[in-house]
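Predict both folds.
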Amino acid sequence: MIEQTREWYRRAERELAATSARQVEWCAGVADDPRMLDLLERVPRPARQPSLLFAVAAFLGAPDAPYAEWADAVLARAESLVAELPGRRVQTNEPGRCVPLVMALDRIPGPLALIELGASAGLCLIPERYRYRIRTPRGVVELGDGSPVLEAEADAAPRALPEIVWRRGIDLAPLDVRDVEAVRWLECSLPPDRPERRARLRAALATAAPDAPAVVAGDALATLPELAARAPADATLVVVSLGTAVYLAPDDRARMLGAIAALGARAVTFEARSALPTVAHRWDELLAQGAGDPDAGFVLALDGEPLASGSPHGDRLHSAESRLDRGSRG
């Protein structure tokens, strides 16, 4: 099992290269540190996830420091860490993913009723409350007047922000944006060397707090039908998954889009390229036709049809074709 954990951290070292230099350093250190590997062997396999280890360590007071100092601090908190890890889940709530979200929602006739799977604190359920600055080949497009300002580079920009008349989230462990410890957990879940993401999170939390979206506790697909039944009949129901599918069981990933379609809802997904089989298959077809980015990390899709690829946090988007097909909305 130690070899599997070591390989997990080696893989994360590569995957985090574009996200956090500090966490890359920690991954490399853990993979070569028998003390840390032995510590991780004391918790169930899902609790050994690198991002979860880093978040829980920060939550328990481990500093942002070079590996040797950080590891000593983690090992000094070993018993607390072993107790805390199994009860926690990765719950980053990245408002920047609202950029691809509004791109896709721009293609769906409103008004909209929105359900997000794996909503955490619900910060991506309020995309129309933020401000957007999108740099396109034709110039900069600005939408909205809220906070934070979400900046991105894209082939095109949405025409307007969505009209959302009803919104709900589902999460195994919902977080309350007004709860101090929940907010601290969200902040600890961010890479320590990305202060701009921390500032963006805090601004989004401040925007959400006066009228926080409701997030119910439950399993994503099991809870979805009951929640969908509460949506207003005169609004288009849209089910959103933004970096959530990778945490679902493979069978749930395979049936997710079908389960959404069975409810008569539209599906907007912004997920790792291989997370959803239907989207991955369509992406491979696009590549075979000479379209799409072969190095795509995340893919934005509407009802399983790829629209664009982008960076994991939505600050860069490139259309699945040579341009976003503006004529295919609706």
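Second protein follows, with its predicted structure tokens after the sequence.
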Amino acid sequence: MGSERSEPRVVLNIPADADGHWLELFRVALPGAQVWRREPGQPADPQATPADYVVAYGPCATLFDEQRRMKAIFNLGAGVRHLLALPNLPRNVPVIRLEDAGMAEQMVRYVLAAALRFVQRLDVYARQQREVRWQQHDPRSPSSLDAGVMGLGVIGEQVARALAAHGFAVRGYSRSAKDVDCVAVFAGEPRFDAFLDGLDFLVCVLPATAATDGILNRRSMSRLADGAHVVNIGRGAALVDDDLIALLDEGKLSGATLDVFREEPLSSSHPFWRRPEIFVTPHISGLTVPEAAAAQVAGKIARLERGEPVTGVVALERGY
């Protein structure tokens, strides 16, 4: 008779003060598994119990000096660039990102709030209030505006569908061809300019990769319609800050809604804080929902233990 399969060992690289009671959640989601927490940033312990699975949340610089024999690495977030940049990350171990886990619903609401504010010209009326100026403007409908979504992954596709459901004329930009109801999809770099041309409202949901770094720059944003509004809920590195400010100064763009930044927290000296045309939020458009995240990771660990495939595996060459 063969020996019984041991239960998986799972280490959570999570700060003790992180919200969500992660350790308890994972122990409930993985009954019978050995689950323990490691404090991020602590020195590597050569005597540490080897884990089958690592769940990363927070600084990871010493994590992979300590853990070298795991079957998979899970990241408690959609963005994995910080993990892939680690020189000690084992390159033969799959890295698996969160897929939605409660984030998409929040991000859809965030974008819709920005889109409807733009449609109703509430930014214009806010400026008029500061100027103590009473002036009415002609109403406009979502159908009169072209909205574009850069990045049609799990979250981007839901954002695009929600905008279309609210009456916007929606385009989507994707690395590869996709079929999304009520969305005109532009696939591949040769179609990027055509996707941008004349957009009134642009949403960036792209991951952080070498190809997307600085993609929202003077050249690309100049292709938008006069008075366009830019939303970034993807990664801060996608936006060239100085180019956005220059286009606002020139009147090419009317405003921006920004939730992600090249450096976070955003420095108190950054000019974005003092620009009334820019609405700044502290990276809250899609916060991880602990219960959903723990359930998703636990489900994938169970599939891997059964030898079954899982989704969300990061292609290291692409960076997402």
